[in-house]
Structures are given as structure tokens and as C-alpha cells.
Write a structure and sequence with these properties.
The chain has ten helices and 15 strands. It has helices at residues 13-19, 67-84, 100-112, 124-137, 162-175, 189-204, 221-232, 246-258, 296-310, 318-331; strands at 54-60, 89-95, 115-119, 141-143, 155-157, 180-186, 211-215, 236-241, 267-269, 290-293, 347-350, 353-357, 363-365, 367-371, 379-385. Helix 2 (67-84) runs parallel beside helix 10 and helix 5 runs parallel beside helix 6.
Length: 392
């Protein structure tokens, strides 16, 4: 495929007008990668020479199947640059094509071009390849993946991880007086991470040892439900359903109810994926079930600003790009010569709520609790809480 030299794509007029006072407009990319980055346009008087700015490499899937998501993430990062109000920072997008190999090469070019920090890429496989490049240049990476195993050695995992979700559910259970929690999950990577997180979080919260039942993906859910009921006993107050697929989550919930686990004695819970699956509310056993999600106020504000700028609602993952970009802009705000200052240990207001970078590469997030409402949108029932605050 031949890639012509395409003209820069302007931002929507509404955002361009908002960015004029900040003298920074981020241009679109041509649909090929890797390639030299296009410049950042500026507005100023004739002959005006801008001072040098700190470069931030944005690694996004701007071509391939994930290109629409990549463009939305680029929009969100641009919005973050405006919200941060840091004229000493320049975002330079690079296309990963959704491939670890291309992502690695994009990172190499970004580093050679003077990037002081890397935002992205999207997937765990890409992040693994990019982190290896960045470590050599001692450049931090703010990756979008939710694979917490990649945290550390200069890489921070910005996606909402299974461990973050489990810790918020454990806090909600403890606040409701629950003493014992169970997990029923398939024997896949997601289920294993949920189980590991629950084994750690429950005793840290002062709760009884959890009941953990995992099963092969193709096995009958009724057998797993019976095992949970028999091991949990009468004191089981919350069962976390570790199915990432909505249909299988509904099937497991029905099997658990048939095994005698029903509200109000036992409540069901799920993952943040439930927020995007309206079919969850069609299962009677899941009425009133809870799951973690973004701070509703912060999310509403982000969606409103994004829609005003780009004329459409952002996809959920665009918030991760916003969060990473706002941190990068803050860290590099001193310009290309000043020391990079990542806000490690500090609270940062993000698109989905507050977050905090930890020294080990993990990220704490302020997650709210939502309840499933049959025939309606999920209802927030507990405010977003950033771990480390009083009572957490």
C-alpha cells in the first residue's frame, strides 16, 4: 500500500477556537507508520519564534482495526493538553498500527526525536515491546493497558486493573458489614488476576479468608455455583462474578441463585465491564448487583468537554488516554531542559476520577460503586474513593 503525503487534518473548529489562546494546535497524522512526526502548529505574530518545548511521544493505533479508538484517544490527549495549560509541552503522535513490532519502532523513533516521556501504547503486548525500548533511554512510559503485571521498571499501568476493581468491591463489602466474600471465575488470565487480588485484599481489609472457585471456561456453571454455595455457607455476603462476557455472567448469576445464594443475604458483584453491557440488567438474579466504575461527576465533565470539542461522545477508553496525557503534560511542564517531575504519590484529577501513581508502577484509582437497575442505567450507590483516604 502506498501512503501519500497527506495534508494535516485540522481539529474540529470548536476545539481549535478554544486552543487559540494557548497557541497550541495538534495536527492529525497521515495514515502510515512509522514516519517522521508532523510539526505542532502555532499561532503568533509574523516572525514570532516559539521557545523549545518538552516532547511527549503519543503511541496510538492510528491505522488498522483500532484506528477509530486511536483517533479518539488522540482527541482526548489533545483535550488534556489544553486542560493542563502547559505551553512548554509538545505532544508528538506516532502510529503503532496495533502491532508490537511497529510500536517498538515507533518508540525508538520517539526516543531518538527527544521524547522525554511516552504515553501509550494500547495493549499489553505493545506495552511490553515499548517498555523495553524506553528502559534503555530511562524514559517513563504511561501505558494504557490494564495488565498490572507490566507495572514497574519505569512503566505505569493506567488502565483500570482487576486488582483496583477487587479492592473497591472489598471496601464496599466491608462498609456494608460483610465478613466473607467469594469469587467464581473461569480459569483464564482475568479470573486468575481477580483471584490473586482477592486473596490479598480480603485479609488486608480485616475480612475472613475468601472462597475462590475457578473452573474451565467450557464447564457447566451450575457445578461452580454449587461449589461456591457449599464452601461459602450461610455467612457469605458477597459473590464476585468473574465472567468478562455478559451472557456467561448472566448464566452464572442464575446458577448461583438456583444454588440458594440470593439477596438480601448474599449480593452479587461484577467488573467494570458491566457498565458497557445493558444486557446485565435483563437477568433477574442480578437486580441490585454492584460493580465498580468511574466517578460519575468526573466522567460527566470529561464527556461534556469532549463532546463540545469533537461533536461526539468519547469511547470509554479515551479517558485513559486523557489521564496519561494530563500526567505527562504536568510532568514535562518545565520544558525540555528542566528535570522531569512525575507526580508520584500525588493525587491527580483524571477523566474518570482521581488517580495516584505509586513508585512501583501501580496506579491507584478513585472508583465509585454502581448498582444494576433492571430496565434502566446503572445507579451510583457509593461515591468514588481514592485509596489512601481516611476509611480506606
Amino acid at each position: 500500500m502506498r501512503c501519500p503525503d497527506q495534508p494535516a487534518q485540522p481539529l474540529p473548529r470548536r476545539l481549535a477556537r478554544r486552543l487559540l489562546p494557548a497557541v497550541l494546535v495538534l495536527l492529525g497524522l497521515a495514515a502510515c507508520a512509522p514516519q517522521p512526526a508532523r510539526p505542532v502548529a502555532s499561532f503568533g505574530a509574523p516572525g514570532f519564534v516559539e521557545p523549545p518545548r518538552a516532547r511527549v511521544g503519543l503511541l496510538l493505533p492510528l491505522t488498522g482495526p483500532q484506528a477509530p479508538l486511536g483517533q479518539a484517544m488522540l482527541n482526548a490527549a489533545t483535550l488534556a493538553l489544553f486542560d493542563a495549560g502547559t505551553p512548554g509541552v509538545e505532544f508528538v503522535p506516532r502510529d503503532t498500527g496495533g502491532s508490537p513490532g511497529i510500536a517498538s519502532e515507533a518508540a525508538r523513533i520517539a526516543l531518538a526525536d527527544g521524547a522525554r516521556i511516552i504515553v501509550g501504547p494500547l495493549t499489553a503486548a505493545e506495552a511490553t515491546a515499548v517498555s523495553a525500548q524506553a528502559r534503555g533511554g530511562r524514559v517513563p512510559v504511561l501505558a494504557f493497558t490494564n495488565d498490572g503485571q507490566l507495572a514497574g521498571n519505569g512503566t505505569w499501568v493506567l488502565g483500570v486493573t482487576p486488582a483496583q476493581q477487587v479492592r473497591r468491591l472489598v471496601l464496599a463489602a466491608r462498609n456494608a458489614g460483610v465478613r466473607r466474600i467469594a469469587l467464581a471465575a473461569p480459569e483464564d488470565a482475568f479470573g486468575q488476576r481477580l483471584a490473586s487480588a482477592l486473596r490479598t485484599a480480603a485479609p488486608e481489609a480485616g475480612l475472613d479468608p475468601p472462597v475462590i472457585v475457578t473452573y474451565p471456561a467450557g464447564s457447566p456453571r451450575a457445578a461452580a455455583a454449587s461449589q461456591v454455595a457449599s464452601q461459602g455457607g450461610e455467612g457469605l455476603g458477597l459473590v464476585i462474578i468473574g465472567e468478562s462476557n455478559g451472557a456467561r455472567a448472566r448464566e452464572l448469576a442464575s446458577a448461583l441463585a438456583a444454588a440458594g445464594l440470593r439477596a438480601p443475604a448474599t449480593r452479587f458483584a461484577g467488573s467494570a465491564l458491566w457498565a458497557a453491557d445493558p444486557s446485565i440488567g435483563t437477568e433477574a438474579a442480578l437486580a441490585g448487583a454492584i460493580f465498580p466504575g468511574p466517578d460519575p461527576g468526573a466522567r460527566s465533565g470529561f464527556e461534556g468537554r469532549y463532546q463540545a470539542a469533537f461533536g461526539e461522545r468519547p469511547p470509554r477508553l479515551a479517558a485513559t488516554a486523557y489521564d496519561a496525557a494530563i500526567i505527562a503534560a504536568r510532568a514535562a511542564s518545565g520544558g525540555p531542559s528542566a528535570p522531569l517531575r512525575l507526580p508520584v504519590g500525588e493525587g491527580v484529577p483524571g477523566a474518570d476520577g482521581g488517580l495516584r501513581l505509586l513508585p512501583n508502577g501501580e496506579v491507584q484509582r478513585a472508583l465509585a460503586i454502581y448498582a444494576v437497575e433492571p430496565g434502566a442505567e446503572p445507579r451510583p450507590v457509593e461515591a468514588a474513593i481514592l485509596p489512601g483516604a481516611a476509611g480506606t
